[in-house]
Specification:
Elements (H helix, E strand, L loop, with lengths): L6 E5 L3 H9 L6 E6 L3 E3 L4 H5 L9 E3 H4 L6 E5 L4 E3 L4 E3 L4 E3 L2 E4 L23 H24 L4 H7 L1 E5 L3 H8 L3 H6 L4 H7 L1 E6 L9 H12 L4 E3 L2
Parallel strand pairs: 1-2, 1-9, 2-5, 10-11, 11-12
Antiparallel strand pairs: 3-4, 6-7, 7-8
This protein binds flavin-adenine dinucleotide.
Flavin-adenine dinucleotide binds next to helix 1, strand 2, helix 2 and helix 6.
Length: 236
Amino acid sequence: MPANLPRVVIVGGGFGGLYAARTLAGAPVSVTLIDRRNYHLFRPMLYQVATGLLSADEISGPLRSILSRQRNVEVLMDEVVGVDALSRHVHLPAHDLPYDFLILATGIQYNYFGHDEWQQIAPGLESLDDADEIRGKVLLAFERAEELAALGHAAPELIQQLLTFVLVGGGTVGVEMASTPHCDAISAISIPPRRQSCYMRQALACYPRIPRRFPPRQSVTWRRSVSKSAPVLEST
Ligand SMILES: Cc1cc2nc3c(=O)[nH]c(=O)nc-3n(C[C@H](O)[C@H](O)[C@H](O)COP(=O)(O)OP(=O)(O)OC[C@H]3O[C@@H](n4cnc5c(N)ncnc54)[C@H](O)[C@@H]3O)c2cc1C
């Protein structure tokens, strides 16, 4: 890329960063897109990986392939650890990168409301690794329940305990997870379907109105649909 063009640095290759890069196609600038992973993740489908409906490669694609036809962009896989707005540099762990224009599109982080220790037992759903972890935990719980059921003399409460899932948060992720059966897990075990429904419990814990940003009437429709697979426990 010509060195004399103004350099636009974009941090983040999610929807925000990717579309910013695409919008600059043909503009007289050189674009450097930096992301800590070298692929774009279609986050709205992430819960389907966590529940076993889709595989990771179905919802992700290499950033370089997606942008391969765009001449004025380069992709770097690295983590931005700071920005010096005065000298116009982004800090990477090993070196600094100058910019003329900076676009920060780094997405959001989950908020554990001062209880970061909860993250160990209740991971958020931000990345493919998170989705794998959640899927693994769910599958393992089903396997353990299967084993107990196979023994024949295990207390039903013990099995039910293993198959009880509580989702905290009635935003997009919580509502979509609560509406989706754990397909992989369910098809992997041989507890008869009729008995599965006796054992399996799923609940969504959330604010009184879900999702909060939706108008009340729409919230009622969502709630009705979620309640079919998971009772809604209201809490603030
Ligand atoms: C399960 C789920 C379902 C959703 N459903 C919908 C829906 O139906 N409709 C809808 O409109 N929205 C939906 N959303 C929300 C939507 O996915 C987000 O609003 C959107 O992904 C945000 O895009 P973004 O570019 O801001 O951030 P992200 O997509 O989070 O991208 C941020 C990128 O920045 C990178 N990054 C972060 N920090 C650094 C750093 N320091 N250095 C380098 N790289 C960094 C990350 O690796 C990531 O690739 C859903 C989200 C989830 C999780």
